[in-house]
Amino acid sequence: MTIDVRPASVFEDVRAVLGPRTPGANVCWCLSHRIPSRLNQELRGPARGEYVAGLCRAGTPIGVLAHDGDEPVGWAAVAPRADTSFARSRRIPHVDELPVWSLWCIRVRPGHRKQGISHALIAGAVDFARAHGAPAIEAYPLDNGGARVDLTMAYAGIRENFERAGFTHAADTTSVLAGHPRVLMRLDLR
């Protein structure tokens, strides 16, 4: 298997990884940190997918997708922190004034897990941020200390995977997800 990570600009590929099995279902679509809270609460069911389709049509990739051949098998959300809710977060601190990028969601489709795709997604997100001029990239993974993490809540990633990718611990946070503290990990791209 050869994994190719590309900018997420084709809606059908994004839908294959993030979309619901049932068209009317209300799923995240990885919008909760990308859009203002009020809009996030207002968008329900198919409107969430339509919003993502509009972002894709706008021409700016909204993250990266891992492909196995032509099949999309994984997703990573990456964008300038200033364009996300992390810019205003009280739980996840700002380390300094650098215009960093945030990597906040990693998802691998069922049937494709345990094959190194999340590692490829982290590397692809780093390359994407670097290509767009990011001086550094941050992630806010779970510090689970090796404990099992529910797959639904593992979207933030695991500290160990970011350490393997060269990220270092930059700060503790007051954010907790699935009973595990989240840490701020950073990779300098300068």
* Extended strand count: 7
Number of helices: 5
Give the averaged pLDDT, no decimals.
94
Order of helices and strands: EHHHEEEHEHEE
**Structural class, judged by helices and strands?**
alpha+beta
- Note the overall shape: globular
Give short descriptive properties of this protein.
190 residues; alpha+beta; seven-stranded mixed beta sheet; globular
Task: Sum this structure up briefly.
The protein has helices at residues 11-18, 37-42, 46-57, 117-131, 159-164, and strands spanning 3-7, 64-68, 71-80, 101-108, 136-139, 168-177, 180-188. By secondary structure, it is α+β, with helices and mostly antiparallel strands.
Describe the structure.
- The protein is of the alpha+beta class and 190 residues long.
- It is 25% helix and 27% strand.
- The chain has five helices and seven strands; from the N terminus they run E-H-H-H-E-E-E-H-E-H-E-E.
- It has helices at residues 11-18, 37-42, 46-57, 117-131, 159-164, and strands at 3-7, 64-68, 71-80, 101-108, 136-139, 168-177, 180-188.
- Strands 1-2-3-4-5-7-6 form a seven-stranded mixed sheet, with helices on both faces.
- Strand 2 (64-68) and strand 3 form a beta hairpin.
- The radius of gyration is 16 Å and the shape is globular.
- The termini are far apart.
- The model has no long low-confidence stretch (mean pLDDT 94).
